[in-house]
Amino acid sequence: MQIIQTNSKDLKKKLHLSGYGVMNLNCYNWQLFPAKRNDIDFERAVLELNYQIDDQWKLVSELEIEHGGTGVTLEFDPLEEFGEFEYEVEKGGEIWLEQFNIRYHFNTDVNISFGRVKVPFGLSNFFDEPDEYRTNQLPEMENVILPTNWTEYGILLNGIFRKHLHWYLGVVAGLDGSAFNSANFIKRGNQRRFETVNAEDIAGVIRLDYKFNDNNHLGISGYFGNTRNNRPKPDLQQNAFLALFEAHTALKWNLFSVQIISLFGQLQNSEAVSNANRNLSNNLNVKRTPVGKQAFGASLEFGFQVSELIKKGMKNKLFMFGRYDYYDTQFATEGSIFNNPRWERNAIAFGFNYLPTHWLILKGQYSKQIIGIAVNKYQETMSLGFGFIL
Amino acid sequence: MKYLKSIFVLLSIFNFISCSKDSIKPAVDYSDVLSNSTNQVIINTYKDLNDKSKLLLIAIDQLKSNTSTGNLELARLAWRNSRIPWEQSEGFLFGPVDQQGIDPSIDSWPVNVVDLDAVMASPDVLNKTYVDALEGTLKGFHTIEYLLFGENGNKQLAEFNTRQFEYLSACTQSLNGSTQQLFDAWRTEGQNFGKNLIEAGKVSSIYPSQKSALQELVDGMITIADEVANGKINDPFVQSDILKEESRFSANSKADFADNIRSIKNIYLGSLDGSGSIAGFYTLLHQSKVSLHQKIVNQIEAAIAAIESIPGTFTTAITLNRPAIQFSQDQVRALQLTLESELKPFIDTF
User: Fold this and answer.
1) pLDDT (tens digit, 9 = 90+) per residue, B129-182?
2) In whole angstroms, what is the distance from residue B255 CA to residue B258 CA?
3) Residues 114..173 of B with a Cβ closer than 8 Å to A: which?
């Protein structure tokens, strides 16, 4: 939505500013970590600035401010390393230019983008604004396994074939395998730790979506690339190709909405990657926990627009939703790597979304995660928050 | 003209004084200090650690093959003995132990009991390669300690089972691997990291000057003093929570803390025998800042004495003898303050 007011008619036409943000209060009751404190997380505020240079060229940028601040954050991770403090340093603090690319529009059927582009993979990367997902936090399974708001440097072609088939084809900088770990599989391999991004390995990504109409589509995407040569040091002798596949659908029917995704990943020579990671410098600030050979996850979200039952065409919208996630970041391990049952997780969540106006969304949810161990396996979280969309 | 002449003479004198000041000042060479810190203290400590961890493996294999109370006590003693050089190495946690990510495999705390139970319940074969691949919180000194001493430090022979013995043995072999890697990384016959300190200032070293190598050493001393005072002692003490106490199972915490302070002492004196008979860090002060030197020596001894005189175990003292803990924490903090506010600024002037 355009909010820039200017006398320059031309500038107003060309410049497009929008934004969104999310803030949550979380209350925890975790058996394995009873001392976990309730917290308030200003998850992110995002400013999108697009400039339509002419009919063909467009500059697309997205500036994300995570956790409401800048600089270095100190994280306490009770589950991954049982209580290690961890400095999380993101490039340029936690202000992060997530997207910055130039788009050339050939015709209605084909575009090319280059620069820092959004990786066309998964469902939540396409439904990332607070009114596009129902939960308080970003969809759990994808957010654990895949980089959050996954963008990479690269070239991306996209277009429409025969009106319904939306396609994407891209070549992007590959992941860095030194940051792969038990809890998050390849998520942290999205290079953000250094001033420059290693581009020795590149990856290919492809996506096909069949759109029946604006609200209903189903599709698949795949990602394939080596993760060996983008490591900070050449400390791995074998290749470590990563393949990711997912199939998804998002449907709306009358008052109901459904989103389903299933995701599978396989990492070549995961034992060798784990062994190389084990000896990485403490200063590199990576987890160094053994990475799985395969990861698998699936989720189902079901929404229902209650407000339409109360009064048809009501301006204030109320949705109720239920969600189920299953994922295992060590679905399979290789060689002598211990397949830790703790990384198999089931989670249920239910809650509400209330939109008093179209730009504000209030959310509340209860979620329960069941981790794959025998005792102390329940993690309950209550969240209340709001998002805004400008 | 007269004035000009006077100014010229004055300038000449001034110039002479400043030049002569420069030329008189000898280029100070600290290579004997750096050499003793490296060869006498660091490499010898890592050698001792490697030797003691091998003795620990022998003791554990002996216990495994002949399960008796005597062998259990010997294994526990061997664990305590191998703990000494490790804790005495914590004053120099830089170089390979840090760069090659070795310390998490040796000394991760707390023990990851949840995952350890899962490993025990798995059908996996427990050997060195397997344990090597596990994350740090599932191996190293404290996992071995937990299995040898038990949650409350009074584990009985009947509570051991075959799988635990296998894990103990594999875990100690993995520990041996790490201590060997660390020793090899430093010694001349290995990767010779020690050369960097000894040859500091030369192109063959990663340290651009002897001063930067000395700063590395003094930073190491400050880090461990801070860790003992404000981490190891403070967390269980202030929170009155024995679960925060490192080396709780073996009741070895006081020995750990005292050995940490001894790591400062060893680097400061440049030797392991406590005599200060050869050039050490102390030499830098001994000639020009005698009172600071005496202060540091006194504070080191006071801190060690205060820690060792805490009555009972550290666990019991958290509830029964809090003033004694407070006193020992104050002594370590005083030492830390001196190192930070007097020794380090002095080195920075070099």
Assistant:
1) 999 999 999 999 999 999 999 999 999 999 999 999 999 999 999 999 999 999
2) 5
3) 114-115, 117-119, 121-122, 124, 127, 129-130, 132-138
Q: Looking at A249-258, A280-289, A294-303, which range is the least confident one?
A: A280-289
Size of interface A-B (CB pairs under 8 A): 73
Over residues B5-17, the pLDDT tens digits come to 555 555 555 454 4
- Residue A33, min C-alpha distance to chain B (Å): 11
**DSSP letter string over A258-308?**
EEEEEEEEEETTHHHHHHHHHTS-GGG----PPPPSEEEEEEEEEEEETHH
Which residue of chain A has the CA closest to B135? A289
State the Rg of chain B over Cα: 24
Better pLDDT: B28 or B268? B268
pLDDT digits (tens, 9 = 90+) for A172-214: 999 999 999 999 999 999 998 787 899 999 999 999 999 999 8
Inter-chain CB proximity A374 and B117 less than 8 Å: yes
Give the pair of three-digit tokens for residue A44.
């992110």
Dist. CA A118–CA A60, nearest whole Å: 11
Q: What phi and psi values does residue B123 have, to the nearest 5 degrees?
A: -85, 5
Direct distance between the N- and C-terminal alpha carbons of chain B, in angstroms, rounded to an integer:
43
Q: Which two tokens stand for residue B125?
A: 């074969």
ipTM strictly over 0.95? no
Q: Which of A274, A280, A341 lies closest to B101 in CB terms?
A: A280
What are the Cα distances from residue A129, in Å, to A19, A123, A143, B14, B215? 9, 12, 14, 72, 50
| Residue A321, beta-bridge partner list | A303, A351
CA A363: distance to chain centroid? 19
- Taking a C-beta distance cutoff of 8 angstroms, is the pair A329, A356 a contact? no
Question: Could B101 and A282 be called an inter-chain contact, meaning their C-beta atoms sit closer than 8 Å?
Answer: yes
Contact B134 A338 (CB under 8 A): yes
**Closest chain A CA to residue B132:** A275
